[in-house]
Write a structure and sequence with these properties.
Luciferase, domain 3, alpha/beta, 15 helices, five-stranded antiparallel beta sheet, Rossmann fold
């Protein structure tokens, strides 16, 4: 369910490319740096010029019309940003895909989204060529990023300005795909007004970008958390976005300082691993550090604060809602709680039938606001939108002050011998142990209890005696939580399975619950 914000009523003219990019140039601020990477730097004027050239290629040479879909495949870069804005200028629909997807996954996306043309970074084109071969429809492909690549060659012939298409508030801007961890990915549809609505709700109220800010992060632009935090929000405020291909933990710690970053968007894993590298060192120019993608463990929050002096801002959102709808920053932060509803959003906790529960009850989080779930031709729409609410699948409770306490994804809540156990609570305790680098807790089938708590642990260093180490961790949890919550099984892993946005893939642990390597 969507509550249309004032000024964004159906039929009103709105093109997010103008609002986020052209507006700054027209206001005489085109000289400011818009996007930067290790390879190039584009001012707002230069970014608009490149987006205009791409838009001409799409419309003049490939006949792209308003409403057509354009598949984008590439690592974060100024070129990918320009391509995204070019699609918006055409009135077309951006279908941005995760760089690490392979041909089978890309074929599924092509069959669902039915794009008319694809723009692809040359280093990633092999899988896309295979996907196009196996897809149900032909798809022309323009590569970019190497000498003589198709797109750059064509850009040289189009140097005229491109007038953005007069789209309206409810014109489709993008299709974002969910991660597909529970089956076939779902295509979520978002309008131009949705893009600007999250800039109002998240950027204007929590992030507050200003010229001079430098945004940095690790999420791909294909992940809506990354699209907002690393492109939409900085350009909304006239700031600068750092768009590099990929980061190791070490290179990201260096980039924070080297780029004089002021705003950081990444996942808890990166904060946990970067924090020791910044301990005792100045935190550069950082003023705001935002965590999302998965629950923020309390030990990670504390470690980051001790290392940098900055309190992490946590956001809760979903691809279906485009970005975040819960958060808190500054003096409003309450450790252990995510935050409150962002402006324009309303929250409720409901039972399995979608009926509201009293304050303080644990149930499914439901949301209404200026964005909402619209699946593309998918019957699962009826599961997500119930009784006028977007039911996110997150198990939470809301206190008397409207703060949200996050427990788990509904599928991740562990029910053992009649007890409801939050895996996140157990993870927080395990992370307090000095020899634990990271961990994940899931429920595994058990004939007597239904489920038992199982922990998957990455140790900071290989233990001399794995069985003894596992016993020590079990006792560590027993000493701090109720006895029924301690992990009956502990498996040591060299690394936890994560997708390219850094989000933990618990389903892979469930697929092989006895994994020990």
């Amino acid at each position: 369910m969507i509550d249309i914000p004032p000024g964004y009523e159906d039929g009103r003219p709105l093109n997010c490319a103008y609002e986020l990019l052209d507006r700054h140039v027209d206001a005489g601020k085109g000289h400011r740096v818009a996007v930067v990477s290790d390879d190039e730097c584009l001012t707002y004027a230069a970014l608009r010029e490149r987006a205009d050239r791409i838009a001409h290629v799409l419309t003049r040479e490939f006949g792209i019309s308003p409403g057509n879909r354009v598949l984008l495949r590439g690592y974060n870069s100024p070129m990918l940003a320009a391509a995204w804005f070019a699609v918006q200028k055409c009135g077309a629909v951006a279908v941005t895909t995760m760089p690490l997807l392979r041909s089978v996954e890309l074929s599924t996306i092509i069959d669902i989204a039915r794009p008319s043309v694809a723009l692809c970074e040359s280093s990633l084109s092999d899988d896309l060529h295979q996907a196009i071969h196996h897809a149900r429809s032909a798809l022309p492909l323009l590569d970019y990023g190497t000498d003589g690549s198709t797109l750059e060659t064509r850009l040289a012939y189009h140097d005229a300005p491109f007038d953005h298409h007069p789209t309206t508030t409810e014109a489709v801007s993008l299709i974002g795909f969910t991660s597909g961890t529970t089956g076939q990915p779902k295509a979520t549809i978002h309008f131009h007004r949705d893009v600007m609505a999250i800039c109002r709700a998240v950027a204007d109220t929590l992030v507050r970008p200003v010229p001079g800010d430098v945004f940095i992060g690790t999420a791909p632009l294909a992940f809506t958390f990354g699209l907002g935090g690393l492109l939409l929000f900085p350009l909304h405020g006239g700031a600068t976005a750092v768009l590099n291909r990929r980061y190791s933990v070490e290179s990201f710690a260096d980039a924070l300082v080297r780029y004089h970053a002021t705003v950081c968007f990444t996942v808890p894993t990166f904060y946990r691993r970067v924090a020791p590298m910044l301990a005792g060192e100045p935190a550069g120019d950082l003023r705001l550090c935002v965590s999302s993608g998965e629950a923020l463990p309390l030990p990670v929050r504390e470690q980051w604060r001790e290392s940098t002096g900055i309190e992490l801002t946590e956001l809760l959102g979903s691809t279906e809602m485009l970005h975040a709808f819960v958060g808190a920053t500054g003096a409003d932060i309450r450790p252990g709680l995510v935050g409150r509803a962002l402006p324009g959003y309303r929250l409720a906790v409901v039972d399995g039938s979608g009926h509201p529960l009293p304050t303080g009850s644990t149930g499914l989080l439901a949301v209404r606001g200026p964005t909402g779930c619209r699946y593309l031709d998918d019957p699962r729409q009826a599961d997500y939108v119930r009784n006028g609410w977007n039911v996110t699948g997150d198990t939470c409770e809301i206190d008397d002050d409207g703060y949200v306490r996050y427990h788990a994804r509904a599928d991740d809540l562990i029910v053992s011998a009649g007890y409801n156990i939050s895996g996140i609570e157990v993870e927080n305790v395990l992370l307090e142990h000095p020899d634990v680098l990271e961990c994940a807790v899931i429920g595994t089938p058990d004939e007597a209890r239904g489920q038992v708590v199982s922990a998957y642990v990455v140790a900071k260093r290989p233990p001399a005696d794995e069985l003894n180490f596992a016993d020590l961790l079990k006792q560590h949890v027993r000493d701090r939580l109720a006895p029924y919550k301690y992990p009956r099984a502990i498996h040591l892993l060299p690394a936890l399975p994560r997708n390219e946005s850094g989000k933990l893939q618990r389903f892979r642990l469930r697929e092989n619950p006895s994994a020990n390597s």
